[in-house]
């Protein structure tokens, strides 16, 4: 196999944001991928130099505008309890540090694996008396972008054992299942064919460490489950629902394939 | 519908979506290697139309995964998921090429290449790219005549 990390990294494998946040974009695959992948790579390593450059400076990264937006929402009281996120959590920089790196995560009270989106909506409905946000709507996705941004540079490290194991297995099964009339699985494109072109698209490993992603193609901030949906649609298949147990399980599994890469969101993709 | 030894006769009486002179997807006769020696229609394939199907996104879209050298000038962005198709007739007999198109998985086990003339065994199949469940019958990705047209085109790709 290929040796990991810095030893083989070329110039365009170096992602340093704002001259200070070092992002690991290539590293040794986690143990559970033994015999499957030697090296894991962020989607950033598959993009053109121009697209890559946009992520090196927050003033150039169009996704950071949404982070700014979310910062003011964070401080704004909403709902019948008259509370803002900040009232309970203090600053996002401190309270949310490391959160994106470990989600989706087993939630003891709920007795299931939860995503950040689900945690946020629980706070909104149960603790703030506010309306829940649409799972992949802009309010939600930009808040997730803010929560991701404060953990940039930290290694993704989702737990796949213990109570999360069952959900992880379910996600793994979905990852290797072929869908639609084109009969393709996630693995067919992102494990067997990464680095190959499929028509005009340079296939990546389909890692999720960069989510939410700002895509130049649709000029918006993209939620992860929307991407899952698009990929299954492209097989001429029927996707699972946004926020469904299947997509939560898939998210946990795919996130675990990136254990060791840095949290990178909001990232820039094409 | 009848299969096996009567297959050739069935060419003339095929029912369902298939018209007279056309083998329906469930009735395609293949040998133990997945080769399909008998054409799916009684019309000879049209290589000009086959070329169009292979290069068009909404039709065969073969170039999304295969380089076809001859098309480089007018069809951009050839993929590299599958092998280059140049020189194909020098490598494979026509029956094999037809078999690959009908259901490549019979020939290349576990391949990522879709089956173009198959209507069963799919998981969560949608109505095209709509994400909505398909109601009604599954149409194969290409019609019998389109398969024959693509086969005829591929057989022109001599080195």
Automatic annotation (TrEMBL), chain B:
MF annotations from Gene Ontology: electron transfer activity; heme binding; metal ion binding
Signal peptide region: 1-20
Keywords for the protein's UniProt record, in alphabetical order: Heme, Iron, Metal-binding, Signal
Family matches, as PROSITE patterns: CYTC
Keyword Plastid recorded: no
Listed transmembrane segments: none
Domain Cytochrome c: 45-158
SUPFAM superfamilies reported for this sequence: Cytochrome c (SSF46626)
Record-given protein name: Sulfur-oxidizing protein SoxX
Organism of this sequence: Rhodovulum bhavnagarense
């Amino acid at each position: 196999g290929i040796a990991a990390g810095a030893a083989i990294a070329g110039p365009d494998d170096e992602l340093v944001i704002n001259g200070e946040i070092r992002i690991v974009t290539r590293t040794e695959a986690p143990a559970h991928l033994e015999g499957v992948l030697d090296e894991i790579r962020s989607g950033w390593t598959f993009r053109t130099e121009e697209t890559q450059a946009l992520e090196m400076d927050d003033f150039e990264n169009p996704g950071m505008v949404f982070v700014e937006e979310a910062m003011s929402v964070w401080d704004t009281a909403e709902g019948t309890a008259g509370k803002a996120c900040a009232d309970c959590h203090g600053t996002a920089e401190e309270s949310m540090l490391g959160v994106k790196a470990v989600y989706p995560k087993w939630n003891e009270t709920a007795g299931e694996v939860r995503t950040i989106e689900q945690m946020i909506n629980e706070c909104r409905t149960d603790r703030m008396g506010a309306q829940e946000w649409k799972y992949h709507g802009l309010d939600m996705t930009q808040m997730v972008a803010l929560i991701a941004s404060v953990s940039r540079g930290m290694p993704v490290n989702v737990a796949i054992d213990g109570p999360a194991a069952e959900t992880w297995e379910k996600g793994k099964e979905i990852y290797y299942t072929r869908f639609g009339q084109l009969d393709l699985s996630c693995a067919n494109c992102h494990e067997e064919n990464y680095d190959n072109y499929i028509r005009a698209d340079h296939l990546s490993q389909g890692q999720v460490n960069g989510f939410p992603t700002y895509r130049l193609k649709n000029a918006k901030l993209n939620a992860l489950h929307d991407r899952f949906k698009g990929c299954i649609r492209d097989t001429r298949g029927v996707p699972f629902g946004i926020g469904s147990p299947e997509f939560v399980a898939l998210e946990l599994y795919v996130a675990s394939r990136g254990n060791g890469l840095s949290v990178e969101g909001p990232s820039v993709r094409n | 519908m009848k299969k096996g030894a009567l297959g050739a006769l069935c060419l003339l009486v095929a029912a369902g979506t298939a018209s007279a002179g056309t083998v329906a997807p469930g009735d395609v006769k293949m040998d133990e290697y997945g080769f399909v020696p008998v054409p799916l229609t009684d019309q000879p394939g049209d290589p000009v139309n086959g070329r169009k199907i292979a290069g068009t996104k909404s039709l065969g879209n073969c170039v999304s995964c295969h380089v076809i050298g001859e098309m480089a000038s007018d069809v951009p962005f050839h993929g590299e998921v599958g092998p280059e198709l140049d020189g194909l007739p020098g490598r494979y007999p026509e029956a094999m090429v037809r078999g690959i198109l009908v259901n490549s998985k019979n020939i290349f086990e576990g391949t990522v290449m879709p089956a173009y003339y198959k209507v069963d065994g799919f998981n969560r199949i949608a109505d095209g790219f709509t994400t909505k469940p398909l109601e009604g019958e599954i149409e194969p990705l290409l019609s019998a005549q389109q398969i024959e047209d693509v086969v005829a085109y591929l057989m022109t790709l001599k080195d």
